[in-house]
Amino acid sequence: MKSLYGLTLICLILSACDSANSSHPSAQYEEKKKSLKESETDNPLKFLKVKGSLRNNIIGQTVVEGEIANNATLVSYKNMKLQIIFKDADGSVIEKDSKVIDDVVKPNSSDNFKVKLSHVKGASTVLVDITGAEVD
């Protein structure tokens, strides 16, 4: 019976030593992490998504409000360049505008934005797209 307890104790000690060694990141893990960071740095548009809507405010401006989501796991982005396209009720393009949102969007998070423009007459919908961004 004592030998069974002794054998169990030795097995627990050896398994604890093995798990302590596995808690250090391997070289392969570090290489994958570096590769992921390079991918996120080189392709910001692949990891950024935007959605928006429009309304008119009380002083006659067209206001575009939306959210930029960063799906990257390691990289933050800033100075996101937005292409804003206004369409009428028939879906025809009325006007296009570009704006830069200088906020920093951290990995796996989102940030709200608001852009005020002079009144866009006849606009019923808006399309917002990200055309560029910088790594923070």
Task: Report the end-to-end length measured between terminal Cα atoms.
Answer: 63 Å
CATH fold annotation of the domain at 44-135: Immunoglobulin-like
Number of helices: 3
Rg over CA atoms, rounded to whole Å, is 26 Å
Strand order of the largest sheet: 1-2-5
Which outline best applies? elongated
Helical content band: 25-40%
Unreliably modeled segments: none
Biggest beta sheet summary? 3 strands, antiparallel
* Known CATH architecture of the domain at 44-135: Sandwich
Task: Give a verbal description of the structure.
The structure is a single chain. By secondary structure, this protein is an alpha+beta fold. The protein has a domain at 44-135: Immunoglobulin-like (Sandwich), CATH 2.60.40.3230. The protein is 30% helix and 43% strand. The protein contains three helices and six strands. The strands form two sheets. Strands 1-2-5 form a three-stranded antiparallel sheet. A three-stranded antiparallel sheet has the order 4-3-6, with no helix packed on it. A hairpin with a 5-residue loop joins strand 3 and strand 4. The model has no long low-confidence stretch (mean pLDDT 86).
